[in-house]
């Protein structure tokens, strides 16, 4: 599990914008904000939060195409320290594109906090600053992670069976 003190120590007392990658990381993001608020209670610089949406999956496979939706004015990140909070990294394409986009808009410093990192070869390398869990290449749902918009509400993470994938596949 991520040590929140490690995040606070790495970032320090500086201004921090936490960027929640919707929809999958909302539960992890909420827990992270609560814990970081406790760790940073004495900071003179407040945390700010914002939301963005990235979409790259169809059924249980990465589509290879990444859509970034939201944060209408990315210029708001110029000169800011940004902690990207994402649910899962597997191919690396989504996170890589998001980091690149934020860099292009002039963020001062970027870190990543990930709920899950799959132990699979990446299509592109990405920096994983803070990772809660490293897992094998299994399709998982719960705690914000979904399969065709289902199972986000679970308070735990489960491996999705082949039968479950077939049952809930979009047709």
UniProtKB/TrEMBL annotation:
Give, as in the UniProt entry, the pathway in which the protein acts.
Purine metabolism; IMP biosynthesis via salvage pathway; IMP from hypoxanthine: step 1/1
Signal peptide residues on this chain, from the entry's feature table: none
Metal-binding keyword on record: yes
- Quote the cellular component terms of the Gene Ontology held in the record: cytosol
Pfam families (alphabetical): Pribosyltran
Q: Which GO terms describe its molecular function?
A: hypoxanthine phosphoribosyltransferase activity; magnesium ion binding; nucleotide binding
Q: Which InterPro entries does the record associate with it?
A: HGPRT (IPR050408), Hxn_phspho_trans (IPR005904), PRTase-like (IPR029057), PRTase_dom (IPR000836)
Q: Which UniProt keywords apply?
A: Cytoplasm, Glycosyltransferase, Magnesium, Metal-binding, Nucleotide-binding, Purine salvage, Transferase
List GO BP terms, alphabetically. GMP salvage; guanine salvage; hypoxanthine metabolic process; IMP salvage; purine ribonucleoside salvage
Q: Which PANTHER family match?
A: HYPOXANTHINE PHOSPHORIBOSYLTRANSFERASE, HYPOXANTHINE-GUANINE PHOSPHORIBOSYLTRANSFERASE
What's the protein here called?
Hypoxanthine phosphoribosyltransferase
UniProt organism field: Trichostrongylus colubriformis
The lineage is:
Eukaryota, Metazoa, Ecdysozoa, Nematoda, Chromadorea
